[in-house]
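Propose amino acids for all 118 sites.
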């Protein structure tokens, strides 16, 4: 795309040589100028997540479920996985505790020892 813009070649000719449809080129060029609805929604949600993280001292340790619940309390309706995707893509993870994420297994019984046979 930048090649076509930087040089004086006609777009139709270059796209025909590359085997691309002209409509794809012009659609992509238009998308660069105006962001999609999802990008706009992401920007709004990211701003609200950052406000939650700076709300008080421990808010930066919130995980995505707690951030999602806080957003719902404020009346913001986004999916939980949307919040997870946005936090992951912008590196807004909570600090990891040493014990966090480890499954605690219930105590297991040991089978009785086998008698020795020789």
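Proposal:
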């Amino acid at each position: 795309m930048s090649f076509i813009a930087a040089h004086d070649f006609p777009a139709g000719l270059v796209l025909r040589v590359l085997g691309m449809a002209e409509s794809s080129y012009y659609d992509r060029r238009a998308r660069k100028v105006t962001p999609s609805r999802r990008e706009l929604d992401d920007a709004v949600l990211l701003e609200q997540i950052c406000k939650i993280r700076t709300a008080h001292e421990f808010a930066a340790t919130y995980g995505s479920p707690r951030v999602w619940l806080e957003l719902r309390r404020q009346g913001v309706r986004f999916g939980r996985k949307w919040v997870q995707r946005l936090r992951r893509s912008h590196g807004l993870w909570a600090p990891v505790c040493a014990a966090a994420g480890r499954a605690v297994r219930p105590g297991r019984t040991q089978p009785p020892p086998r008698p020795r046979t020789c």
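The radius of gyration is 27 Å. Residues 2-33 form one domain.
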